[in-house]
Design brief:
Number of domains: 1
Structural class: alpha/beta
Strand content: 5-15%
Order of helices and strands: HEEHHEHHHHHEHHHHHEHE
Helix content: 40-55%
Amino acid sequence: MANRSNPVPALALLAAAALYFVEPAALADPRPAIEPAARYARGILWEVSRPGTAPSHVFGTIHVADPRVLALPPEVSNAFAASRSFLTELVVNEAVARRYYEAAQFEDGRVLEALIGADEYARVSAIMQARGFPSELLPRTKPWAVMLNLALPAPDTGPGDGGVVLDQQLYLLARTQNKTVGELDQIEEQIFLFDEMPLDAQIALLRNALANYHRLGEATERAIAAWVRRDLAALWRISQEGAAEAANAAELAPHQALFNRRILFDRNIVMAYRMQPSLRRGRAFVAVGALHLYGQHGVLKLLADQGYRLRRVY
């Protein structure tokens, strides 16, 4: 993990953001709404198989360091132990943290206060200072980077006290067990998704995250409880609440629809594609944020469409 002076936490930030109030409401997306009763609405561990290949497993994580999350049930531990390879969204290391650090800063003279206004900047500054963010770096930090910081549990105050999150725990365990380790994301791709997002969308999403910041602790607690229950539909509903209840929901909708397509649905397609070599070899264990599993646009549905047989294990 990066230290607390890093303006962007060293974490697979895209998937983390999907669980904490920057995820768009389904009604803002032009595609058909995802039915809560869809097949892929419950279950965080799925067996994925096809004839002639040893089964693999896809596991939906939640990016927190809470003991309730880190204590894996036997079904998950056994599937992990039997695997030969491990795939995660992004392997986080110091190089990744440094690259996020660089990408998070304006280099062209623009400053955050001029973009969001003095009042909202003062609120952001107070929150970020309380979270241990260096005050000298905030003026030129990009809106998307501040948004992600506001959307993640604060160090030392949220569940898990800022320790090793579940995805990192699995990665470290895979290394100790000498599994082949692979990534479904690339750092430059993640940065591109945010840097190429229109500035007005970044600002709108930052303001939404700021407006919902007071709800973060309660929402995180509810998200953990839903994950423990293996309720993907509930996680989805929690992720939508901040946007759906915003006073300017109609104004926010197109920005959130863009975020939704870029950060969740389109990435699901890429991740399902990049799983293919490991799934064809068999005995792979794939760990992605739980919202990537959910519904008719999730990786489980995409794998089923590609001819894989899926069975809910846990």
